[in-house]
Amino acid sequence: MKRETVFLKLSVIVLALPILAACIFLLPFLWRDAKESGGWIANSMRPIVIGMYVAAVPYFMALFQTFTLLGLIDRNEAFSYEAVKVLRVIKYCALTITVIYTALLPFFYWFAERDDSPGFLVIGFVFVFAAFVIAVFAELLQKLLKRAIDMKQEIDLTV
């Protein structure tokens, strides 16, 4: 089990790197570019950049919680209430990201309409959809894990 969790921990790190790079390099560039362009570009891009920075916080929190969950799996504590709590935090982080990007959709629409690039609006919907799918999956895992723990405790009490 250790080998698989090491691979998954490396995967979590790989998932963190592009967002970290975007926060360090891409988003400041977009902010400066919007500032220099002014007008409607600045009015639509600045809220998007701010929202992406804000969404990065729950994203990294969810990745940290994923790391914690993998640590629990390493210690054979996957079927514990601690794991249920970790999945709940991941779910709330994903829902927070969903709400942030849903709030940003009008700005994505405004930019896509003015720039005549409908693909930009699709990007906003992809962010919303991906985060929502993760939230639903975490909720499902949380319920299944809680049910399995409750059944295990019931069996232990019966015996």
Automatic annotation (TrEMBL):
InterPro entries: DUF2975. Pfam families: DUF2975. The chain crosses the membrane at residues 7-30, 50-72, 92-112, 118-141. Keywords: Membrane, Transmembrane, Transmembrane helix. It comes from the Bacteria. This is YoaS. It comes from Exiguobacterium sp. (strain ATCC BAA-1283 / AT1b).
